[in-house]
Amino acid sequence: MKTILISGATGLIGKALVKKLQSKGYEVRILSRSKQENSLYWDIDKGIIDESAFENLDAIIHLAGAPISKRWTNSYKKELYDSRVKSCDLLFQYASKLNSKLSTFITASGANYYGTKNSSKIYKESDEHEPDFLGQMCYDLEKSAQEFEKLGTRVCALRTSAVLSYQGGMLKELKPMVKASVLSPLGSGNQILPWIHLDDIVNMYCYLLENPSLEGPFNAVASEITTNKEFAQKLMRAHGKSILLPKAPAFILKLALGEMSEILLKGSALSNEKIKKAGFQFEFSNLEKALADLNS
């Protein structure tokens, strides 16, 4: 039985992944910033991790990260960065110090690796990162993760798109707007909204964990390329509703949300050919099917 250490285990993906791994017979250890039962304590700012987390450890899955959906003040940008990159650095420091013989390190990166912009290009894993805030943060996170290769550890990164689940993330925030029939496209509505069903990304983590020949970055995105307008229409239709209001003006979103509004108003398509060629099979490549499953 393999032992997996997970950071960010209380998040949307983390909760579902812990449950899945345990059902498959893995021993799962959870890192927590609060001292509680059934978890191991760490403090990123103080550079502390309970060393017992690394005893006879086989793999680490690094999901920790403050949510990007809050307004980006300078202090919150630092929190976004440190919660991902500084925490990854800390994991490597302890793994190196304790001479951990890890087989695998997998980190959650982001679809914004390629930049928060509108583009007709379909981005592949071989494309360069964009040096805007999110693109640089994702690049630095993946570079930090690559340090584990010095320990003889296989490293993977999942460049994650919007994860669909009513248990958290975007859909949880949108559901009240859908029920009230006030959901509408944002800005032009033509920006691409890359997405993935929660089940598929959880299965993708398991697939990477269980296939030791796979390494490097992988785009975690469904096959269907969807605009923001199409997403809003299909989400409303899935609830038996139609869009009643005009598009939400970009300038209103910018006033309300500041720089963070860019992730709502801009977006580009990603290719998932690399993971599919590696043998991974998506359960939900079609948005209508994904929403129907989530509504069932």
UniProtKB/TrEMBL annotation:
<dbReference type="InterPro" id="IPR001509">
    <property type="entry name" value="Epimerase_deHydtase"/>
</dbReference>
<dbReference type="InterPro" id="IPR010099">
    <property type="entry name" value="SDR39U1"/>
</dbReference>
<comment type="similarity">
    <text>Belongs to the NAD(P)-dependent epimerase/dehydratase family. SDR39U1 subfamily.</text>
</comment>
<protein>
    <submittedName>
        <fullName>Uncharacterized protein (TIGR01777 family)</fullName>
    </submittedName>
</protein>
<dbReference type="Pfam" id="PF01370">
    <property type="entry name" value="Epimerase"/>
</dbReference>
<dbReference type="Pfam" id="PF08338">
    <property type="entry name" value="DUF1731"/>
</dbReference>
<dbReference type="InterPro" id="IPR036291">
    <property type="entry name" value="NAD(P)-bd_dom_sf"/>
</dbReference>
<feature type="domain" description="DUF1731">
    <location>
        <begin position="248"/>
        <end position="294"/>
    </location>
</feature>
<dbReference type="InterPro" id="IPR013549">
    <property type="entry name" value="DUF1731"/>
</dbReference>
<feature type="domain" description="NAD-dependent epimerase/dehydratase">
    <location>
        <begin position="4"/>
        <end position="214"/>
    </location>
</feature>
